[in-house]
Amino acid sequence: MTLNKINIKFLRKKINAKKNIDSISALQSNSIGYITSILACASIPHSKIKKNYFKRTNGRTSLKIISDPEYGLPYGVIPRIVMIWLCTEVKFKKSKIIYLGKNQNEFIKKLGFIPTGGINGSIIRIKKQIMKLFHSTISLINNSNNSHKFLNLTIVDNGILVSNKKYGKSINWSNKITLSKEFYNKINSSSLPIDLRVIRVLRSPLAIDIYIWLTWRSRMVNKRKSIYISWERLKLQFGSNYCSSSKGLYNFKREFLKQLKVICFLYSQINIEILNYGLKINYSKSHIPSYY
Fold it and tell me: What is this structure's pTM?
């Protein structure tokens, strides 16, 4: 495959991130972030879906997202970054009230994006995904034996979202949101520490999902017993855009392995084996120690 300028730029960024991760701890580099375990066991859509309902399954646990038809379902990299940012803010500041920044551009920079205008610019794309995310409801369902446990969460109780300008004149930015009590409590009670330097270098929503999932899964493996997961089960959890056929499974496996190579390069502590029927996750050193 011929390397174009974009691929070379990504390769350099990946190598530089690897050197930084290996030489400086996440604590020392101020790069510890958090994500709720809800999104570690199941993910939101990778690309646009016309329906207002989405479901992913991880064994006995299922994640459902129901959106307001006016806005549609959140998808892609942006809502994942927003969720990570929200969870990190809560863990460090211990408040349900989240201030987005002194102006619109500052908020976009906090998310790690460069503010750009125009129809396809980051400002419009981030606004759209935020509206989709904040007007969605998440349901976490666990079926075990004869029990049916479920938790319904709204992310935001209320908020004020104001544009930078009105009638061509600058106005004060007073954007803030109040997280729902249930979502706030869930972040505080069960959030996973992650390395934001890994997140910043990833360009694929699938890659972000794999990194978060492996970081979460590795904490469940002890030294005496590994975890085996089939490709069919992985496709149920991650493969939202692949058809339910042998070809769909083949295409999913190919893309999953492509992104997995990037994750293993950045998260070298993970100890996994690629098998014909799935993955074997062995005991691994946590990417971020549990006490963070």
Answer: 0.89
CB atoms within 10 A of CB 202: 23
Number of H helices and number of E strands within the chain?
A: 10, 14
Question: What letter does residue 158 receive in the DSSP assignment?
Answer: E
Residue 248: closest CA among 260, 259, 240? 240
CB 153 within 8 A of CB 147: no
pLDDT in tens, 205-244: 999 999 999 999 888 887 778 999 999 999 988 876 778 7
Q: HSE on the CB side for 290, CA within 13 Å? A: 6
Residue 136 has pLDDT above 50, yes or no: yes
pLDDT in tens, 148-206: 888 888 999 998 776 655 444 444 556 889 999 999 999 999 899 999 999 999 989 99
Length of the chain: 292
Locate the DSSP E strands across the chain.
32-36, 53-58, 61-67, 97-99, 136-144, 147-154, 156-160, 165-166, 169-170, 176-179, 191-195, 227-230, 272-274, 278-281
CB 196 within 8 A of CB 32: yes
Q: What is the dihedral of CA 244, 247, 253, 259, to 10 degrees?
A: -100
Q: At 253, is the secondary structure helix, strand, or coil?
A: helix
* Largest Cα–Cα separation, the chain: 65
pLDDT value of residue 135? 93
- Say what the pLDDT of residue 169 is: 47
Distance of CA 212 to the CA centre of its chain: 7
